[in-house]
Each structure stands twice: as structure tokens, then as C-alpha cells.
Design goal:
Layout: H1 3-15, E1 21-32, E2 42-58, E3 63-68, E4 73-78, H2 88-102, E5 110-116, H3 126-142, H4 148-163, H5 170-177, E6 182-187, E7 192-197, E8 202-208, H6 216-234, H7 244-249, H8 255-280, H9 283-299, H10 306-316, E9 321-326, E10 334-340, H11 344-359, E11 364-368, E12 375-376
Parallel strand pairs: 3-5
Antiparallel strand pairs: 1-2, 1-12, 2-5, 2-6, 3-4, 6-7, 8-10, 8-11, 9-10
Helix pairs in contact: 2-3, 2-4, 3-4, 3-5, 4-5, 6-8, 8-9, 10-11
This protein binds adenosine-5'-diphosphate and magnesium ion (MG).
Length: 378
């Protein structure tokens, strides 16, 4: 049974009536452009064929009542009195309701069943998927116009200010604007998006190291502060405004700030080059850029880990692997590899064995297709 069928069936069982709406919003994997989003730079993610689904029907009052299949828990809140609570997953829904209200939207109540197959906390952005699915549900029951970039900004605000996670715009924007078969080049300053076709005869393989680091939040905030300081040094609003030439000629940044800034400046250039390579169908150039991105994240931005490095090395060592890099904030989580289609089956087994031998850990491996962004399903 598909997840869509499951949420519909569970909603029927729990609410004794057919839900009249089903919404879906995907997770994502970033192909290249890491730690560039909060520097007003470029990212090149794709929405994946793993998503959060909600089957729902409107209510006449201001209650939102939701059952999560993952947590096997029913919870509710009133739109008239939004307060922080204990059930972690419900805070994402409340946060979206709050941010919609802050944006001046009149939101209506609903009840529904929620499920997803984006692994939680693995770096594939199940949180953005949950936020966009929630926003899509509110928009549908409240007759709000669906403007994907606007909704992404509202969901980012929910995560930043209600949940308290200081993320950039990438995750919400790609969940909102994904295009099947394509990655999306996002200009994080203007929020302009361009769909870029994935190279034919390749697969995107997500390699989860099965490690998670508690340190991520503080290290992430520290990197953001370092980038902002470097932008002030150059006298620009964000590192996006510094090109490699200007960076190379500059003098006076301390060694650590210099490495951080070099990653961001070079990664922005690589991301634009990667989109160009994809448009030309130049798979080997795209792979080379992914490999270079990993080195830069490891040595200059210093957000990799021994497990991520081991996973990337295992993938890069396989026939048919065009390129591989850590993806997401770092210190744990996933790597991503671009693999020739005919080599995928063999690569999955050999990389799993290689990584297990190197680290003693059992990885999870997901072969992903590029999917469409958040929507109401027929
Ligand atoms: P990531 O976004 O990398 O997957 P986060 O820690 O940002 O990890 O978000 C994970 C949280 O999002 C979960 O702990 C849960 O609260 C919520 N969440 C995501 N998917 C679901 C789901 N299918 N059902 C309920 N809650 C979910
Ligand atoms: Mg998240």
C-alpha cells in the first residue's frame, strides 16, 4: 500500500468519513552548494521521491487535530491560542499556523492523518517536508493562494522563530518548488529558481552514515557568524558579493576566517558551474565539482567528519561513481553520490561493505528520483 493510500485509510478509520484532501510535500537532497544559502548564494538541490503526506478534511471551528502515524499519537491545538507545547512534531504544525497568521492569512481548522517516508533527522529535511505539507493543508482548507516561494518563506520563519532552528531558505524552497526529473538552481538572494535537468542515465544515491552530531547547532551558528564577519571585512552585504578574484587579491583576514570565506566564495562558483555542466549533460564535470565541494567542506569549512569522509571515499572508489560529497549541514548525516545508472545496483552493496569495514557502522542507502514540489494530490 502506498503512503497516500495509508493516510487516506487511517483518516477514514479515525474520523469515520472520507478525507476530502490529500497533500504531499517532499524531502530534499542538495547536489552542490553547501553552507551557501545563508550567504545569499546559490544552491542546487532536488526534491526527492520521499515525502510527508497528510489526508485531511476541514473543520468548522478553529481546532487543528492531527494523528501522526510515525509517533502513533493524536494531538491538537487551537488557532485562536497558539502556545508552545511538548510534542515535538506538533510544534512544526503550530509554527506554520503561527507564521501564516503573522503573514496576515486567515487560517481555518482541519483534522487529518500525517505520515512520511523521509527519514527523520537524517539530513533529508523531513522538517521542511512537514512544514510545507502543513502549509499546503492550511492553504487548501482556508482558500489561500498557493505561491511556492512565499509559502517557503513562511515555513522558514516557522522553523526559525517557532521551532528555534536557525536554518536558511533552501530546504523549504526546494520542497515548495521541486520539479520532477530536475534539480533546481536557487538564487538564495532573489529566491529565483531555475529547473536544471538531471543528467540522463545517472542516479542520485544518498548514503546515510548513521551518525548524528549534537554539536551541529552550535557549530552551524558559529559558521554563520564567521561568514557574516568575513562579509563585513569585505564591506559587502553577504559573501555572495565576493568573487574568487577579489578573494584571492584580498589580504588581512585571519587564517580561520579566510578558510571559511574561501569555501563559500568557491562553492558559489562551483554551484553555478555545476548547473552549466548539467545543462550540457557533462556528467564527469558535475562529478568533479561534487568531489571538489567535499574537499572544501572538509578542509576549509571544516564541517565534515571521519564517517562522512569514509563514506565519500568509499563511493568515489567505485566504478560508475561520477562524484560524491557530504550533503547537508555536516558533522554526520548523509553523503550524496552521482552514479551511472548501470552501476547503481553493484555500488550500493560495495559502498555499504566498504563503509562498514571502515567505521563498524551500518549505513542506510537511498536511491532517489527528483520529484515535484508540494501539492494537493488528485
Ligand atoms: P531533518 O529535517 O533533517 O529530517 P529535523 O530534526 O530538522 O531533521 O526534523 C525532524 C523532526 O521533524 C522530527 O523529529 C519530527 O518532529 C518532525 N517530523 C518529520 N517528519 C515527520 C513525520 N513523518 N511525522 C511526524 N513528525 C515528523
Ligand atoms: Mg530539518
Amino acid at each position: 500500500m502506498s503512503l497516500q493510500e495509508r493516510v487516506v485509510l487511517e483518516a477514514e478509520r479515525r474520523f469515520h468519513a472520507r478525507p476530502n484532501l490529500v497533500v504531499r510535500a517532499p524531502g530534499r537532497v542538495n547536489l552542490i552548494g553547501e553552507h551557501t544559502d545563508y550567504n545569499d548564494g546559490f544552491v542546487l538541490p532536488m526534491a526527492i521521491d520521499r515525502a510527508v503526506w497528510i489526508a485531511l478534511r476541514p473543520r468548522k471551528d478553529a481546532q487543528v487535530r492531527v494523528h501522526s502515524l510515525h509517533f502513533d499519537q493524536t494531538a491538537e491545538f487551537s488557532l485562536n491560542r497558539l502556545e508552545h507545547g511538548k510534542a515535538g512534531w506538533l510544534e512544526y504544525l503550530k509554527g506554520v499556523a503561527w507564521a501564516l497568521q503573522e503573514a496576515g492569512c486567515q487560517v481555518q481548522g482541519w483534522e487529518g492523518v500525517l505520515a512520511g517516508d523521509v527519514p527523520l533527522g537524517a539530513g533529508l529535511s523531513s522538517s521542511a517536508a512537514l512544514e510545507l505539507a502543513t502549509a499546503r493543508a492550511f492553504a487548501a482548507v482556508s482558500n489561500l493562494p498557493w505561491d511556492p516561494p512565499e509559502m517557503a518563506k513562511i515555513c522558514q520563519r516557522a522553523e526559525n522563530e517557532w521551532v528555534g532552528m536557525n536554518c536558511g531558505i533552501m530546504d523549504q524552497l526546494i520542497s515548495a518548488t521541486g520539479v520532477a526529473g530536475h534539480a533546481v538552481l536557487i538564487d538564495c538572494r532573489t529566491l529565483e529558481t531555475q529547473a536544471v535537468p538531471l543528467p540522463p542515465d545517472t542516479a542520485v544515491v544518498v548514503l546515510d552514515t548513521a551518525t548524528r552530531r549534537g554539536l551541529v547547532d552550535s557549530a552551524y551558528n558559529e559558521r554563520r557568524a564567521q561568514c557574516e564577519a568575513a562579509a563585513r571585512f569585505f564591506g559587502v552585504p553577504a559573501l555572495r558579493d565576493v568573487d574568487i578574484d577579489r578573494f584571492d587579491k584580498s589580504d588581512g583576514l585571519d587564517a580561520v576566517a579566510r578558510r571559511r570565506a574561501r569555501h563559500v566564495v568557491a562553492e558559489n562558483a562551483r554551484t553555478l558551474q555545476a548547473a552549466e555542466a548539467m545543462r550540457r549533460g557533462d556528467t564527469s564535470e558535475l562529478g568533479r565539482l561534487m568531489n571538489a565541494s567535499h574537499v572544501s567542506l572538509r578542509d576549509d569549512f571544516e564541517v565534515s567528519s571521519s564517517e562522512l569522509d569514509a563514506m565519500v571515499a568509499c563511493a568515489q572508489g567505485q566504478d560508475g561513481c561520477c562524484g560524491a560529497r557530504m550533503t547537508g549541514a555536516g558533522f554526520g548525516g548523509c553523503a550524496v553520490a552521482l552514479v551511472r545508472a548501470e552501476a547503481v545496483g553493484g555500488l550500493v552493496t560495495t559502498v555499504a561493505n566498504c563503509y562498514q569495514t571502515a567505521t563498524g557502522r551500518v549505513p542506510s542507502i537511498y536511491i532517489c528520483k527528483a520529484a515535484a514540489g508540494a501539492g494537493v494530490e488528485a
